[in-house]
Automatic annotation (TrEMBL):
It comes from Mucilaginibacter glaciei. It comes from the Bacteria. Residues 69-103 form a coiled coil. Residues 231-395 form the Integrase catalytic domain. The keyword Coiled coil applies. PANTHER family: INTEGRASE PROTEIN, TRANSPOSASE INSF FOR INSERTION SEQUENCE IS3B-RELATED. GO terms for molecular function: nucleic acid binding. This is IS3 family transposase. NCBIfam families: transpos_IS3. Keywords: Coiled coil. GO terms for biological process: DNA integration.
């Protein structure tokens, strides 16, 4: 036969007991209110359920210590403290904003409220109205600003994609030249493009590397500088020649011999090999002669005073092709500035300054880079024409960035 107390316990299922305990611990109703709500008999029954199923600590009957706190009252007290702390923080932040606006003379709230609401809305998407009211911003104005924001983001994404498509061929092409190539497709201006590339870390920094490849201390004849005061007015008026090194892992230094047209900046001939012999330099010259377009025009060949350019083998070839010889006089790189600048473009913008695997890889990359350089890379001094385009005409006057000497058209 069951006792009366045990029979009364059977009226409440396990799930019911747990739900009562959970409701009690939320603190919305006290023990008496819950008993009245569900018709639970017995003053200690809810406490017994709390000790069995609850997440809080409930001292047993007769235990020493302070009486158990009412969870509802304790929760109210905790919320009041949190509210007071939040109000104090709000006062502190408002004072900080006030001081910053006064010292910097800008309106932080007006400039940053749209972005602040947008970022908060990601976490609290249903509280946009409250955030707008907090910052004194109408919902209509906020959503209008959002539309403008996403429009700007789309334009920036489109610009970045276009830039990366060009950089796949010319990885270190500068922003002004990028803008010139892409301005018909871009939806943003030049200054915005600069700003975007700066934020994205896509601005190209300058590299400073210098390796001496010229030996001018020799007994062979040196020629005077004939282009010191000359103005470049047509293609194949002056060729400039120079040698630069390309480093490899397997084969050590390679040497790139270049012949460049001073007017159009087109590379007319080149040779990459593992030596600096005059025979190798001659191969670059022979390629340039083969690529001549205006054979009847007078032509000057200008170089430094290196052994290769002063050798009988090289000077005889120049004379046989009616090419006048000119050389720097004091070893100053600015006397052969265009050749030095073209070297720098190939190395800085086309990756030839990096250490390549071997000479064969270097030859392949050099040929590809020179082809892209001649056909695709615009030059500031050529009014943003490519070397190949500039070489096809002789009407356009070069832009000069040095008032003292036309030979220093280095900003190409």
């Amino acid at each position: 036969m069951k006792v009366k107390g045990e029979a009364s316990q059977l009226r409440y299922s396990e799930a019911f007991r747990r739900s009562v305990v959970a409701e009690y611990e939320r603190g919305l109703l006290n023990k008496d209110q819950i008993q009245a709500k569900y018709g639970i008999k017995g003053n200690s029954r809810i406490l017994e359920w709390c000790r069995r199923y609850g997440k809080l600590h409930y001292p047993k009957a007769g235990a020493l210590g302070r009486p158990m706190k009412d969870p509802q009252k304790q929760r109210i007290k905790d919320l009041e403290k949190q509210l007071a702390d939040a109000q104090l923080k709000l006062v502190a932040y408002e004072k900080l904003i006030e001081i910053a606006e006064r010292e910097e003379r800008i309106s932080i709230l007006k400039k940053g409220r749209s972005q602040t609401i947008r970022e908060l809305a990601r976490t609290y998407p249903r509280q946009v109205s409250m955030f707008c009211e907090l910052f004194g911003y109408s919902k209509q104005a906020y959503y209008k600003a959002q539309t403008q924001h996403y429009s700007v983001v789309n334009k920036q994404q489109q610009a970045k994609a276009l830039v990366l498509s060009v950089r796949r061929l010319m990885p270190r092409l500068g922003t002004r030249k990028l803008y010139h190539l892409l301005k018909s497709e871009l939806l943003i201006g030049r200054d915005k493009l600069f700003q975007l590339l700066r934020i994205e870390g896509l601005l190209v920094g300058k590299r400073k590397r210098y390796t001496v490849t010229t030996n001018s201390k020799h007994w062979m004849r040196k020629y005077p500088n004939l282009i010191k005061d000359i103005e470049f007015v047509r293609p194949e008026q002056v060729w400039v020649a120079d040698i630069t090194y390309i480093d490899t892992n397997e084969d050590g230094h390679g040497y790139l011999h270049l012949i460049t047209d001073a007017y159009s900046k087109q590379i007319m001939g080149y040779e990459l090999c593992g030596n600096m012999e005059a025979a190798s330099t001659l191969k670059a010259l022979q390629m340039a002669i083969t690529n001549r377009k205006y054979n009847d025009n007078a032509l000057i060949h200008h170089s430094d005073r290196g052994l290769q350019y002063c050798s009988k083998l090289y000077t005889d070839c120049l004379k046989e092709n009616n090419i006048t010889i000119s050389m720097t006089e004091n070893g100053d790189p600015y006397e052969n500035a265009i050749a030095e600048r073209v070297n720098g473009i190939l190395k800085d913008e086309f990756g030839l300054s990096e250490k390549l695997n071997n000479i064969n890889k270097a030859i392949h990359q050099t040929a590809q880079s020179i082809d892209i350089y001649n056909k695709s890379r615009p030059h500031l001094s050529c009014h943003m024409l490519t070397p190949a385009q500039m070489h096809q005409q002789k009407e356009i006057k070069l832009k000069s960035y040095n008032k003292k000497a036309q030979t220093s058209l280095v900003d190409v």
